[in-house]
């Protein structure tokens, strides 16, 4: 009985770890088939940056600035680990591009809205973040958290990364997306 219980706990932990992230992040260049999808985001924070409580992602794409779109969850350990790096890159480039974190943890069993709000507060995250429905996860084939999609100023997908990013890798992608100064 104890062995069966231990096996069930181990299996549950493995499933949670697989759902939360892959051991190695996977970076993919944009494909011509992947086009930006429209969806609404109810902001937890960043209303003053994006201009309202509820925003439509298509409106952001039409703004002519590159966008870093990050899917995360309040109880996702790799998401928690990468958020300070996102904050630093946001602070370095907030005039050049838009950052948006979309909390989808509830769809992965990785946190509630309150868990997300608590994490943002605990880590002193100030870039815009909010929640959405399943539409962006389905349209962008988000199967692991965190997942980050980089959009060029033209509104097309520049690159997507499934898994956690460190600050130096994020800076490399952002610099390539922004191009020469």
Could you explain how this protein is built, in words?
The radius of gyration is 16 Å and the shape is globular. The protein has one domain: Glutaredoxin (3-Layer(aba) Sandwich). The longest helix has 19 residues, at about 1-20. Helix content is about 40%, strand content about 20%. It has helices at about 1-20, 45-50, 55-60, 75-95, 105-110, 115-120, 135-140, 165-180; strands at about 25-30, 40-45, 55, 65-70, 100-105, 130, 145-150, 155-160. With about 180 residues, it is an alpha+beta fold. Strands 1-8-7-4-5-6-2-3 form an eight-stranded mixed β-sheet.
Question: How are the SSEs placed, and which strands pair?
Answer:
Blueprint: H1 2-20, E1 26-29, E2 40-45, H2 47-50, E3 54-56, H3 57-61, E4 67-72, H4 77-93, E5 98-103, H5 105-108, H6 113-122, E6 129-131, H7 135-139, E7 147-151, E8 157-162, H8 167-178
Parallel strand pairs: 4-5, 5-6
Antiparallel strand pairs: 1-8, 2-3, 2-6, 4-7, 7-8
Helix pairs in contact: 4-8
Overall pLDDT metric: 85
Helix content: 40-55%
Q: Which architecture would the CATH scheme give at its second level?
A: 3-Layer(aba) Sandwich
Could you name the CATH topology?
Glutaredoxin
Distance between the termini: 64 Å
**How big a fraction of the residues is strand?**
15-25%
Inertia-based shape: globular
Radius of gyration: 16 Å
Task: Give a brief outline of the structure.
This protein has 181 residues and is α+β, with helices and mostly antiparallel strands. The chain contains 8 helices and 8 strands; from the N terminus they run H-E-E-H-E-H-E-H-E-H-H-E-H-E-E-H. The termini are far apart.
